[in-house]
Structures
1.
Amino acid sequence: MAAALSSPEVAAEGQEPLLSAGEAEEEGRDAVETQEHYKSRWRSIWIMYLTMFLSSVGFSIVIMSVWPYLQKIDPTADGSFLGWIIASYSIGQMVASPLFGLWSNYRPRREPLVVSTAISVAANCLYAYVHVPHSHNKYYMLTARALVGFGAGNVAVVRSYIAGATSLTERTSAMANTSACQAVGFILGPVFQTCFTLIGEEGVTWKLVHLQLNMYTAPVLFGALLGVINIILFFAIFREHRVDDLGRQCKSINCEEEESVQDQEAEGNIDHVAVVAINVLFFVILFVFAVFETIATPLTMDMYSWTRKEAVFYNGIILSVVGVESVIVFMVVKALSKRTGERAILHGGLLIVLVGFFILLPWGKKLPNIQWQVCIT
C-alpha cells in the first residue's frame, strides 16, 4: 500500500519527511512512495553520510603526525618532501573523482563505492608498514597517502547519489547534512590522533607480522577498520535508489530524466562568471586550510622546540578547536547571510583569514628556540 511520506507515522520515527504538511497540500500529494522504499532510501543516504565522514577522517586523522613520522622513518626527507606528501592526497582525489563519477554513470554505484573504500583500507595498511623497508621509506609514505586520496575520490559518487536519491524539497537539507558530515570528519580526525598519542612513539610491536602499533600507525589502522565496516554496510544496508524532483521512484538507476522547456531556459540563464568565481574562492579556502595543516607541525617544532609527541598532541588539540569553531561559524553565517547577503559574508571571511596569517608572521627581535636535535621524551 502506498502511503504519503508526510504522514505522521513516518515523521514520528525521526526521519526526514519528503514533504511537509503544507508543501504536500500544495503539491496535491503527488509525491508518494511506499513506506518501505522510503526507509530503505534514507538508510542508504545515511550510509553515504558515513562514507563522506570517513573520507574526511582519512585525510585529517594523520595530518598532524605526518612530519614527525616522516622524520622518524626516513631522516633524508625534508620539508619540501612533506609538501608533496600532503599534496599527494589531493592529487589522488582529483584524479579519481572523475573516474569514479564516470564509472557510476554506467554501473551501479555500489561498485565504485566498494572499490574506492577498499583502496583506502589497503592504503592505510600500507601507511602502517612504511617503516619496514630498509630504504626509500618516504616514497612508500608518498604512495600510501596518494592511494588514500585516490580512494577518497568516491565523494563525487556520494554527492551524485544523494542528489539523485532525494526529492527537490529534501535535496538542500541532504546536501547540507553531507557537508556537515564532512566537517565533522575534519574535526574528529585530529581528536582521534590526539587520543592515540597516549600510546607513545614506541607503542607495542607485533613481531610476527612486523607491525608497530604506536601513535603514528594506530590512527591509520583505526581508519582502515572503519573502512572495513563501511564496506560491510554497503553490502548489508545500501540499496540503489533514484527519485525525481517530486519524490517518485525511477525504474532505472541511471535513468536520464527528460528536461522540460523551463529547465532548459533556467540552465541557459546560469551566470557562468559567478560560478567560476565561486569555484576559485572555494579553491582559495581549501588552499589556506591545506597550507595551515601542512606547516603547523614543523612550524611549532622549530619555533617552540616541541618534541614529536608534543607537536602531534598540541596541534591535534588546536585543529580540533579550529574545527569546532568552523561549525559554529557555519551556523552563524547561515543565519547572518539572510540579513547581510552572501557577498558581505565572503568579504568578511577572507579579511579574517588575511588577518590570521598576518598574526602568524614571526614578530619581535627574539629568535625562535629552534630544536637542533631530537628530544627524547
2.
Amino acid sequence: MLLSDKKINELCTFSFRMCVTVPPPADITAAEQKSLPEVLGSHQVRVQVKACGLSPLDLKLLDDVGIQRDLIPVGREVAGVVLQVGPKVSFFQPEDEVVGILPLDSPCSGLCDVIDIDEHYLVQKPEKLSSVCVAAALRDGLCAYTALHTHARMAAGHTLLVMDGASSFGLMCIQLACYHGVKVLTTSHSPQKHTFLEQLRPSVARVIKAYNGSSDLLPQVLEETGGLGVDIAIDSGVRLQEVEESEETKLFPHKHDIISVLGVGGHWVTSHQDLQLDPPDCRLLHLKSASVSFLNPEVWTASSAQQGRYLHILKDIVEKMSAGVLRPQPEEAVPLYEATVAMETVQRHQKKKAVVQL
C-alpha cells in the first residue's frame, strides 16, 4: 500500500486504486473534488459534511457486485447539515442536521466538503448528539442491530456471547443486548480490555480471557449457562485452523469452539466471509438444530425493498445514542490533512475505525 505524493490540502476525495496484477494491498490515491450540478435531482439532498467515519474498504465485495472503477471513494459514514433539497424531497429542509451512510455505488466521498445524496439514505441527527460521535459509531450500531435483531431475533431472557466485547462493534452489541434484557457473556483480548469490560454498566455476566493462550471459552460458557450453552454467539472473526494463522487472527476463537458453545436452537452470527464448515461441524450444528448467519451490513442499501426498514433502524440507532442507551467509546477526530494516513491505517487493520472532522 503506497501513499500518494499529492498534497492532501488540495484534495477532497480519497480513493483506492486496485492493482491490475494482484489483489490488495492497493495504492492510496486521491481525486479532485467533483463539481456538483446546479439543479438537484428530485429526491436528492445537498449536504455540507461536518464529520466522516472511515472503515475498511471491502474491495472483493465491490468486485462481486460489479462496481469496477479505477477510483473508489472512501469515507461513507457522514454527518452534516442540509444546504439544499430537491423538488420532491419530503423528509428534510435546509439547515436540518442529518446523518447517514453513502451507498456502495456512490460517486462522492464523505471527505468532500459538500455532497449530494438521496434522501432515503439519511435520517435526522438529534441535536444533542455530536457529528463526530455519530459518524464514528453509526456503522457499528447498524452491524449490531442487524446481527441481534435481524439475524438472531434477540429476545428478553436469551443468553448472548459476544467475542471481543471491547471493540466498537462488540460494545454496541453488549449495550443493545443489555437494554433488551439479554444475559451477556463476552471475551477480552488484553488485560486492559478485560478490566474495561468488567467495569461496564450495565454489567455483563462474565468476561472470559482470550489472551495469553487461554482456552477456557467452552467450560466457562457452560458453567455460566448451567451446561445449556448460549442462544446467540456473535464473532468478529474466526480461526479455521487449529494452529495460529497470523498475528491478526490468533485471538479469534476456532470455529468449532463457537459451535460447541451454542445451545439447542442457538444462532451463530459470523463476520467471516470465507467460513468453511466441515462435515463434523455441520453434524454438530444439525444435532443442536442450530443455524449460522453471515453479517453483511451492505445488504440494506443493496435492495430498494428494504429502504423503509433500513431508515427505521438508522433512526432507532441515533435515538438510542442520543438517549445514552448506546454509548460508543469516544473516537478522537483527525483533521482532513491526516485522512490519508488514517485511512491507510484502517485499511491495513492496524486500527478498526477512524473519524475525520471537516
3.
Amino acid sequence: MEVVQQDHFDRLPDALLLLIFNKLLDVKALSRCLSVCKRFSSLIPQTNALFVSIPPRIPASKPGNGLCLASLRIFFNRVFTKPFKHCRRIVASKSPSSKSSNVHHSFINVLKKFEDVKFIHIQFPFYGSGIDLVGGDCLVKWKAEFGGQLKSCIILGATSYFLAKVKELQEQEQEEERFLTDDELRVRIIWTISCLIAASARHHFLKKILLDHPNLESVVISDEQKQGKLCMGREELVEMRACMEPFAASKPLLIERTKVPDLSIKLSYAPELELPVSGYRMRGATLVVIRPVDGDLMRKGLSDGELLGSGFDGDHGEDKVFAEAVGEMMKMKKSYVMTMNSF
C-alpha cells in the first residue's frame, strides 16, 4: 500500500504563514524561501517586516574614494590644528566625495521583491573603532532622528567605562566639576562631527528605498557594533517623501549625503560618573544634545528631558547602563553651549 506524504504547510491559512514570515525577518532567509514553492513565492513579498544585514565591502587593491578613517583623520587634523580658545562658533568643512557601491545596488534589488514592507531594520557593517579615530579606547553611542532633515541627535561618550567593585563605589570621592581642556574638547567635537556625518549618510542611503516602498512606516538603521542608530517613524517618513518629490526625477543618490543644517549643541561633561544602579563607572563621560537652530523641536520648545527620554532606552544589558548614564548626566549643572554651521 502506497503511503501519501502530506504537506502540513498546505493545511495552514495564508494569514498564519504571513505571521510566521514576519517573525522570520531576515531578508536572506526570506529570499531563499521564495524558491521553495509557488505559494511561498506569492506570500513572502507581502511580508511587512524585514531585517537586513549588509555584508562588509571587500577592500579594493587601490584606495577608494569613500569616507574612511584615514580621510576622516586628515579632515579633522586640518580643521582642528590649533587648540580651542573660543567655542561659540564651529565651522565644519564638507567631507570627501564618495560613490555608491555595488553592495548598495544589490541591496536595493533584493528589497524590490518586498513591495508591501512597512518596517525595515538595516544593519551596516562596522569599519574600524574609536581607537583609530580619536586615539583612545573610548565609548561613543549615538541616536539620530530625521524627517526631511536632521531633527535631533544625542551622543553619549566616555574615554572608558567599566564595572566597578562595590568597595570602589563606596570609597570613591565625588570629583569636583571642572572645565574641559582644549584637547579634551577637540576630541568631543570630533566625536560629534563623525556621528553627524554617519547619521546624514544613513539618511541619504534611505532615499532610494523610500522611492521604491511607498508603504514604509518605520525605519531603523544601525551598525553591527550598535554604536549608532538612525530612527524614523511614519510622520518623519511622510515629511521626507514631501522633501524628495521635487527632486525625485534627478536621481537623489548622486548626492553624497544629506546636508546637516545649522545646529545648536549642548555638551555636558563629568570627569568621573558613577552609575549606582548598574554598578558601572564612566571616565570622561560626555552627553551631547544636538538640535537644528531653526527646527520643529526648537519651535515646539521641547525640554532636554523630553528629547532624551527615548535616547538610549532599554530594559537589559548595555542599553540599561546607557539609559542610566543619560539620566545622571542630565543632573549636571554646568554645560557648554555651541553652534555649528551647516555642512
4.
Amino acid sequence: MAEGKSAGAKGFVDSAVHVHVKDYYGKVLKNSSDLKTNACVAPSQQIPAFICQALKKVHPEVTARYYGCGLVVPECLEGCRILDLGSGSGRDCYVLSQLVGEKGHVTGIDMTEDQLEVARTYLDYHMKEFGYKKPNVSFVWGYLEALGEVGLEKSSFDIIISNCVVNLSPDKKRVLAEVYSVLKDGGELYFSDVYSSGRLTEEIKKHKVLWGECLGGALWWEDLLRLAEEAGFSPPRLVTASGITVDNKELQEILGDFKFVSATYRLFKVPKGNTKTSQVVYNGNITGVEDSFQFDCQYTFKVDEVVEVDGEVATILSHSRLSEDFTFQPPGGPCELRRVKPKAGIVDPFELVLQLEKQSLGSATGGCCSTRSAACCK
C-alpha cells in the first residue's frame, strides 16, 4: 500500500495503510459478524470467574463493536496504570477499569474516530455501573507509532496491552520502540496478535481486505523476537496460541501455503543478561489466581511449590510488579516444600498450537466461554 498524505498527531503523517484501516474498522465493519475470517475473533476459551463478572458489566454495544484475537488481561492489576493500544470500542478498557480499581487508571488510544465515539458514549454508563465516584478511564485519539506525540509521557505506564492491533501497523518496529519508551522500568507489554509461518509476500501485504482482516500485516513470529530485542525488551514469553482458519476460498488462494496463529506474548522492560537459575515460591496473593498462576506456557506456579526458573524469568519476577508475589528460595532452603521442574520452554506459537491440540484430543473438554461475549460465563 502506498504512503498517504494525511496529517496525524502533532506532525505524524499516517500512511495509506492507516487510512484504509480507519475506513475498514470505522465504516466497513459494523459488528463482528462482518469479518471475513476468524483472525480478529477471539477463540473460545475458559475464562476466570472474576473476568467473566467484569465482562458482564460491559455495555452490549461496546462488546458488539469489539474485534480482538485473544484475552489480554494479565495478572496483578490493582492500582496499575494501563495503556490499551488500539482500544477500539473500549471493551478491554472497561474490563480492566474494574480490575485496577478506583486508584488505578486505564487509557485507551485509537486512530479510528468512529470506534472512539462508541467508547466515549458509554463512559458515564460504566463508571455508574462500577460505582466509581470519578472516571478511571480516558480515551485518546492517536497512533501506535506516535504515543509521545499525544501527550503520553515516558516511563508512565505499568502495563501496556494490545488485542489484535499491532499487525495493523505498517511499522511494527516503531510501535515497539514507542511502547518501550512509555513503559516504566519493570513494566510489561502483554498482547495478543496474529503471526504468520513466514515473511509474507508483497501481494498479500498489499491486499486491502487481508490487511483489514489482520492477516496481511501479520509478522513472521521469528521477526517479533528480533524486533523485541532491538527495542530493548527481554525475550518474549509465549503465553498461549491458537490456530486461525480462513474459510473464504478466494482469500485462501491468495494466502497459499502461509499459515497463521493468534498468539499471546508478554514482554518486559527489565535488565537483561542474567543467566543464573533461581528457585522461587509463589505466595498466592494475586487476585483470581490464588492457588495457581500460569506465567506462560512453560511456567505455572502453584502456592508453596519451589520452582526452578531460568535467569530471564528470575529477573522478571524480581524487577516487575510481580516481585512482591514471589519469594526467592536460597540454595538448600527448607525441604518441606514440594520442588518441581518446569517443562521445556516453547517460543514457536505454531509448535504450541500442535501441542495444545494433542492435549485437547487426549483429555475430556469442558464448557468453554468465548471472550467475545459474557453470556456463557457462569
